[in-house]
Design the sequence.
């Protein structure tokens, strides 16, 4: 799928960032992705008074991926509620890799890059014993 509307995807990420529950960090994070069947999914961060339990936006998005028909991520954009480009944290890069693989495209400060550049030499399911 090459016809990604990146501006629309970024706008969706900003829109859902404003739905975040982030009273502790004050950073509202939104993420939007295109799935290989063409649908768009989104997620926002959901924090907790027990700080370490907070969920990143990518976590809630992967929940939505599974709940709305599964599939593979093909394009991902992450933004703050103020429209700033944010990169997925290390843990979330692993999460995106699991559900999108090395060819999933990510909006980065260096341009649109595949996950193979965002998480080089990734550990993945292929490294587990059969
Ligand atoms: N956060 C995300 O939602 N995704 C990331 O990839 C980086 C960090 C959230 C977690 C926390 O609620 C807030 O940003 C500040 O770290």
Sequence:
């Amino acid at each position: 799928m090459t016809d990604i509307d990146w501006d629309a995807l970024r706008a969706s990420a900003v829109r859902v960032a404003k739905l975040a529950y982030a009273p502790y960090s004050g950073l509202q994070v939104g993420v939007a992705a295109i799935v290989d069947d063409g649908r768009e999914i989104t997620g926002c961060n959901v924090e907790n008074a027990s700080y370490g339990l907070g969920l990143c936006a990518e976590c809630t998005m992967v929940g939505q991926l599974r709940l709305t028909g599964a599939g593979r991520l093909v394009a991902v954009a992450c933004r703050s509620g103020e429209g700033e480009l944010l990169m997925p944290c290390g843990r979330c890069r692993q999460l995106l890799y699991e559900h999108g693989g090395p060819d999933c495209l990510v909006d980065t400060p260096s341009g649109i890059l595949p996950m193979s550049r965002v998480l080089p030499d990734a550990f993945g399911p292929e490294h587990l014993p059969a």
Notes: The helical segments are 6-17, 57-67, 90-100, 115-118.
